[in-house]
Request: fold
Amino acid sequence: MKSWICGVAALLATTSAQAATVVTADRMLDVRTGRYVDHPAIVVGDDGRIQQIGQIASMQLPAGVKHIDLPGETLVPGLIDMHVHLNSLAEIGGYQGLKYTDAFWSAIGPYNARKTIDAGFTTVRNVGSPDFDDVGLEQAIDGGWVVGPRIVPASYLLGATGGHCDDTNGLPPSLGADKKSPGIITSPEDAREKVRWVHKYGAEVIKICATGGVFSLGDSVGAQQLTLDEMKAIADEAHMLGIKVAAHAHGDEGIRAAILAGIDTIEHASLATDATIQLAKQHGTWFDMDIYNDDYILATGTANGTEQESLDKERMIGLKQRQTFQRAVKAGVKMTFGTDAGVYPHGLNARQLPYMVKWGMTPMQALQSATINAATLIGWEGTIGSIAPGKSADIIAVEGDGLADISRYTRVAFVMKTGTVFKAP
Ligand SMILES: [Zn+2]
Reply:
């Protein structure tokens, strides 16, 4: 607390922003230290940044500053989900998607974005969408035309022919052969070129498919699908451009190869062995494990049109993934928060927090995974991920003590992003 206040003088000296809003509540949670601050008053400038944190009684606020008081609430940083698909809908599974025109998937983006920010998620990493839809959605949100979270877009998924990222799996050659997904790569050289291509058109993270998947038809969920050399080429090229790589990987060999290739985050990580967990620890590789959605997929998959093959795969890996999560947490692997929203309905993202606690995290660890850890992973820890002077005013509120009952994060009453209120009690 003391160091924040000391920092304010320096901060105010370097910004011409005027104090615009002060937010007060019963408590504030500092996710960096795990400590509560009683009766905080957070001053937000008209540039959307936090200027000062103190207590209302000792503050000299200029006239005209808007006061938002949230009695009974605890202020926490805006939540961050590292694995969403804003241009997908859980309700349309399997071949049902073929009934919709290509632009439909762009059209639903704003709807899903609104659901996501209303749930308290002020930043998301969108790990895959067609037609650069997520880049367009990011531009529309940043410009203020559409309401939604800050987006780190991946655009097209990169992967092997017939693999998890190949959109035309499950179609006959007469329909699929000439409609190859632009994200298909055929060699390390091609992989480098595709990284450059998606980056050119707005990708801020690269998403690859290192193994088979649940919803891709005709592939084995655990089998490796990209070679070590292809993954190395992708990691080298992306890092040269200053961006990170997220690898979809369920099977142990594919996870291992991705870690050795220098990939930054392993998505799913379902079948990682103890040896691979240790390897991730040695390499500082993040695990991003979606351990909530299994319940949704198995309960509603048939009604949503999901193919039996996909449901069988989910049944095979769902419980194993949760057990792997528990072993990875215990081993001390760096963990972030990713839910795969889009395979379950958008806006239910925080339902994963209680699952993380049930499977081995403390409530504080679960919350850190969705705030400061996620911010660190994308290199934005100076801007988001905690409530501190100089950072973007991304603030949400939950009733009472959210750490005593982590399910309270599924009922967020107040959402502010970059100083603008999007939801209020
Ligand atoms: Zn996904």
Observations:
- The pocket of zinc ion is lined by residues 83, 85, 127, 340 (CB under 6 Å).
